[in-house]
Design brief:
3 helices; single chain
Amino acid sequence: MAPDTSSIFSLGPAEKLQLVEDLWDDLASNPSAVPVHDWQIALLNDRRARLEQMPETAISWEEMQDRLRALNRGH
């Protein structure tokens, strides 16, 4: 039986964000319980193989954050 979610939609934005964070933390506490689809595994394997073939294409996490911030400023 599905839980009654009608009260969730009456929450304010901050409460909804907190609920999402709580749900995410709960899922993250047991990652092996989260299903991973075959297409996701194939995609990750493909990306890993391309990175191993062309390691010079990799960028740091900091550079990725900078790029995302620049994109956000452009909108």
